[in-house]
Amino acid sequence: MGSLITTMIVISLFLVVYVTSLPAMESFLGNVVFTTQKQSKTIQEDLVIEQVAVNSSGAFVWVANVGLVPVTVTEVYVNGQGTAVNVPLGLSSTVVIKASVSGVTPPYYVVVVTSDGYSTSVTWS
Amino acid sequence: MSGVRRRARPAQSTVVGAMFFIVLVFFSLGILYYVENNYVLYGEATQRAWQLQQQRNDQRFTVGEAYVLPAKGGYKTLFFVRNEGGTPIDIVNAYLCSVNGGKVSRYSTNLYLNPGQSEWVNLTDYNSSFPSVLNGDYNVSLWTSLGVGASTIVVATALGAFGSSPEGNVYPVAGSLSVSASKTAVGVPSWPHWWFRVLKVWWLQPGDFALAEVNVSFTVVNNNPYPVMVYPNSSLLLYWIPTPSQLNQLAVDASSYGSAFYSGVIGAALPLNETLVVNAGSVETVTIPNYTIMLYSLTWLGTVSGKASGIFKNHPADIYVPIYPSTATNYTFASKLLLSYALFGKTYDMYLNNGYFTVEISPPS
Predict the structure, then answer these.
(1) Structural domain that includes position A20
(2) CA B299 to CA B312: how far, in whole Å?
């Protein structure tokens, strides 16, 4: 009888510890899953800025998806001037993205950012 | 106490504890599997990305030269591309960009090159519209499907003396043509005209012809850094420019003799024995003296003097003119030379125009 009581006490203590640490455990597992899945996607993303042209109409950036997954371009920066966009880019496709700029002069430092946080940049002189 | 030992039964605590630990083990294994599976997927993604990067690192190509050349009906934009890497490449995008960066023309291409292979690429094969951005120095960049690029700049100041095209960056194969009559042509009767000779009345009858000799000279100027091959099948074209009276005579003759076939163009292959090579930056002149052309008077479809109908219809003359009058007559021609030449392994046609020259044709004495 004593052993049973002892066992129940151990189980109860475990349940107390488990319930107490459950949020932390869920957070840990969630981080692991989120991080790995996000990293899996991000590591397969690859963009290349093939051409940049800046004229009075704005900046035009030709971006090609040379990665393994489709991406969505959400931000373009030209010499620090950012333009929010929403341009889906399928596999092996190329798009030209127009960004609003004013007063920029060469060389142009162009950064393209995707919805997953992947970014690529080029300095165009 | 009995001397018989009873088999020990597990205590309730043992059962509960064992069940608890079994549940705990399965719970822990589930979490481990879940986490491990995520790491496996991450590892696979990393592996694919790494392999892609390896392929990308193996790709290497260069754009050697870039030219814009005049061609029939427009221009051709040529780029020399060589795959210098260890894997095949597929070039999918090409850009022409003015050096000031303001204007860009993009072409979707599908060029595959094996390792070591090189090729001249004509961008206008992919898009017939000539880019309007090429009014000065421009940059050309080519990209593979894996995002590996190469580029070069074509400088407009590299143009030769004939680089006066408004498009700029043009390396034209220029030239000039000169054609003149070397002597007066004499008509040759195709059958005896003795009765006219007796009557001292001369004129050439349908079916008579004349041989005219002209001097042809043309010059080819090659402004390109590569040789130009002028093929022997280049053609000399002569256009008869009839006077109003000759046109009227042509109509009268055609009516009198039941109409006939008429052509105002002489097309003949120039007697070039072999391919003419014009080296880079060189000028070559070719002179062909006493080049003979045959003029043929109108034939008829009826019967005259026992001649069968249409007997001259297939006569291999160069040009068909009205019935010759009884006196010497001038015939005016415009000349043009169609040069067929090769540059960078591509074939082009170029016309060289000349002015007018006159051939005097006299009846036989």
Answers:
(1) 1-44
(2) 6
